[in-house]
Write a structure and sequence with these properties.
With 343 residues, the chain is α/β, with parallel strands linked by helices. It has 15 helices and ten strands. It has two domains: 95 residues, Orthogonal Bundle (Arc Repressor Mutant, subunit A); 212 residues, Vaccinia Virus protein VP39 (Rossmann fold, 3-Layer(aba) Sandwich). The strands form two sheets. A seven-stranded mixed beta sheet has the order 6-5-4-7-8-10-9, sandwiched between helices. A three-stranded antiparallel beta sheet has the order 1-3-2. Strand 4, helix 11 and strand 5 form a beta-alpha-beta unit. The mean pLDDT is 85. Pfam families: Dimerisation. InterPro entries: COMT_dimerisation (IPR012967), SAM-dependent_MTases_sf (IPR029063), WH-like_DNA-bd_sf (IPR036388), WH_DNA-bd_sf (IPR036390). This is O-methyltransferase dimerisation domain-containing protein.
């Protein structure tokens, strides 16, 4: 038998395929209670297996994988969590991402319909996927893993923020960005505009949170159903601009935003940006493919297109913060000042 001469390493494909099993492995560790058991302490393999009531040999094999991916540390036969696992994989952490881990390891894949989408059989996007309690809580936890912190740091650096007393948080979910901004400005009141189902959930889920009395929720059903009020000193929008990325639609929406703001008011947008790092760029490319296959338009917005549209709708003095690629979905933060009114 004459063997073929190989010109590239199959290991590159094989290793990638095996990495696809990691979410299921990590989720099994979560459901077994492994991360919670090691939170704040270190244990030997034997002690850990006894505490979890698990097979010692299989537990050891699992730990070796978790050490290999830097979710666990081992020293002198004792295992402990890395900072990464302590923050995101322990159930009592305020920023745990356990729902995301479950989503990637259970049920159907978001790419199940990719073949049909490639053939032109794109589904109509179902915005209802974002209005369940689990969905809104998962989005909030995801945002707390770096995105909100970046937005707070950015908005605090803007001179107009500290004197503002009225803010619009458009498509603001349960208001998690608003709560963070209110903590930094004791005179600010926020108006959150969202789908009726999300507003109802927000009032139920956030009613005991500090500064809840400084937030007003407004039901909207879409761009054509958004009377925004007026005299906003701050207008914050995260993600929603993807839905009006077409030039004419974007300009029409920004004109409406302009009409709701005070002259000199601060406009802030937060949206996913292009990435320079290869690994992060791959994740964003997969998100783009996934959302388009599900019928959602596009999950990116050109910063130059946004700058041009803002310039045409009465805004200026634009400030841009380059994305932090240590965040799961690197965001482009942009600030602009309302310079004048537009017709």
């Amino acid at each position: 038998m004459k063997l073929p001469v190989l010109n590239s390493p199959y290991s590159q494909i094989n290793n990638l395929l095996y990495k696809s099993y990691l979410p299921q492995i990590i989720n099994s560790a979560v459901e077994t209670g492994l991360f919670d058991a090691l939170s704040g302490k270190s244990l030997s393999l034997r002690d850990l297996a006894q505490e979890l009531n698990t097979d010692e040999c299989i537990t050891g094999a699992l730990l070796r994988i978790l050490v290999a991916i830097d979710f666990m540390k081992e020293q002198d036969g004792y295992y402990s969590l890395t900072v990464l696992s302590e923050e995101y994989l322990v159930s009592n952490s305020l920023v745990n991402q356990l729902e995301a881990v479950r989503m990637f390891s259970e049920g159907t894949s978001p790419f199940d319909g990719l073949k049909q989408a490639l053939k032109g059989e794109t589904k109509r996007f179902n915005s209802g996927m974002w209005v369940s309690e689990n969905a809104v809580l998962a989005m909030e936890r995801s945002a707390k893993a770096g995105e909100i912190q970046a937005a707070v740091s950015f908005i605090k650096s803007m001179p107009g923020f500290h004197g503002a007393i009225k803010m619009c948080d458009f498509a603001g979910g349960t208001g998690y960005y608003s709560f963070a901004f209110l903590h930094e400005n004791s005179n600010l009141h926020s108006h959150v505009y969202e789908l009726p189902e999300v507003c109802s959930l927000a009032k139920e889920l956030k009613c005991r949170e500090e500064n809840f009395d400084r937030i007003t929720y407004h039901d909207i059903k879409g761009l054509g159903d958004c009377s925004l009020g007026n005299d906003y000193g701050v207008f914050f929008i995260s993600r929603f601009l993807y839905e009006c990325r077409e030039g004419a639609v974007l300009r029409a929406f920004l004109k409406k935003v302009n009409g709701s703001m005070k002259k000199g008011g601060l406009f802030i947008s937060s949206h996913i940006a292009s990435c320079s790092k290869k690994e992060c760029g791959l994740t964003i490319a997969m998100v783009e493919l996934m959302t388009q296959a599900k019928g959602y338009p596009v999950y990116k917005l050109s910063v130059n297109a946004l700058k041009d549209a803002l310039g045409e709708t009465g805004f200026g003095e634009i400030t841009i913060l380059q994305p932090d690629e240590s965040v799961a979905f690197p965001i482009q933060l942009l600030a602009a000042i309302k310079i004048n009114d537009v017709e």
